[in-house]
Amino acid sequence: MKFSPPQYVNNLKCLVCGSSYSHGNIFTCPHCGIEGILDVQYDYEAIVQNPKSLPAASLRQAGAIRNPQSSDIWRYKDLLPISQEIPLPHLHVGWTPVYDVPRLARYFGLRKLFLKDDGRNPTNSFKDRASAIGVMKAMEFGFNTIACASTGNAASSLAGLSAAVGLKSYIFVPERAPEPKITQLLIFGATVFRVKGTYEQAFDLSKQSCDQFGWYNRNSGTNPFLVEGKKTAGLEIAEQMKEHLPDWVVVSVGDGCTIGGIGKGLQEMKQLGLIDRVPRLLGVQAEGAKPILDAFASGKDLIPTGTNTIADSIAVGTPRNWRRAIQQVRSSHGEMVAVSDEEILEAMRVTARLGGVFGEPAGVAGAAGLKKAVEQKIVKSNETAVIVITGNGLKDIQSAKQAAGKEHLVEPTLDAVAELLEKQLKL
Ligand SMILES: *Cc1c(COP(=O)(O)O)cnc(C)c1O
To answer: I need a surface site. Which of 212, 292, 308, 351 has the fewest CB within 10 A?
Structure first.
């Protein structure tokens, strides 16, 4: 079956040399190679001229007809690179809640602070926004199988979204991948190859297999369409918060697609007239894996690094989308900071205890970075911020246990409880 191309996509433009290519199943710029990440360009004038396609109109529509299908990322269908003819996945992706958290704000020394909880996506991470587009593009281009290499959230979200639309998924994991994460893949029916080697070897093998066996490649970084899914969080922040648009949007950074996408979404909402300014982006990396921060600080090209952090979802030594990340941070007059594992563990505790949201280490790294940025007066105490919590804390119980402290073993008697309470009070 042949599907029509996305209605409002003009072309794909190289972020390095600026060359444009027509829409199709291509990945990077043929001139610039792997560095030449492509950006999807839209005909915004046509979108604006169609009153039905404005997000504000779909918002009204959603309120009027209470169509739950439109209170997710598909409310922005016209701003996404998808064919109008393909049925949408039934899972609820995006339109995650934004919480006002005054106790956490006070703790950080900020006037007002919000958490946007993206752990509430179908497979419990921000990656579902990208995978939702990934499966749509696989179907549009006529694939019945989609593949990636990952042990983390990209893999579980691909497995889940593939299951939802009836695509086969093949996932390559390194030999040392943790058992719980592999189980999450298998339960969704993914075929999992445990590669006897490193992550890099698993990555290369997945790419070769896509070419050889005709599978669609969801390997993040270089696929130009996935970042458009990530953009929806920026569109949502603009729409959900337009009454009290924050001064800062805080995002953890690994490959750079998330912050690059969110920045693009905010820019688009300004272009479409929904907001009149773009909030500043605060990008947060782990001290043990901060090549994008280093390139941001030096103004030079990125130099790959090793990785050493508990925040496995942002432990990326060779990020693919660093140019997009830095471009977006700069054009928003934003900043970048790095945080230690201790600061991340503390952020896990305080976002849970003062904000009621339980995030994985990479999920709360933004919170740790915001605290540091306030201390360093990058963010002023009279300013406001929203932190995107990118993944749920149950994804990584090992780290959560490190942050959480210990339970008390107690005899089943009231005296024993009383005795323990007394001891605790004395401490
Ligand atoms: C992937 C991921 C990120 C970072 O996204 P990039 O696009 O790699 O920068 C942050 N947090 C979580 C939980 C993730 O899974």
So the answer is: 212
Q: Which of 127, 313, 326 to mutate to test the pocket of ligand 1 (most atoms within 8 A of CB)?
A: 313
Residue 203 has a pLDDT of 85
pTM over 0.90: yes
Higher pLDDT, 202 or 6: 6
- Residue 227 CA: nearest ligand 1 atom is 7
Summarised one tens digit per residue, pLDDT across range 343-365 is 999 999 999 999 999 999 999 99
Ligand 1 midpoint to CA 362 (Å): 7
pLDDT digits (tens, 9 = 90+) for 302-327: 999 999 999 988 998 989 899 999 99
Q: Which fold has domain 98-124+225-404?
A: Rossmann fold (3.40.50)
Please state the atom number of ligand 1 nearest to the C-alpha of residue 319. 8
Task: List all residues whose CB is within 6 A of at least one atom of ligand 1.
Answer: 125-127, 152-153, 252-258, 313-314, 316, 360, 362-363, 390-391
Predicted pLDDT at 63: 43
Atom of ligand 1 at shortest range from CA of 152: 15
- Judge whether 278 and 243 are in contact, CB under 8 Å: no
Using the mean position of ligand 1's atoms as its centre, give its distance from the Cα of residue 397 in Å: 18
Terminal-residue alpha carbon distance, the chain: 69
Q: What is the pLDDT of residue 174?
A: 80
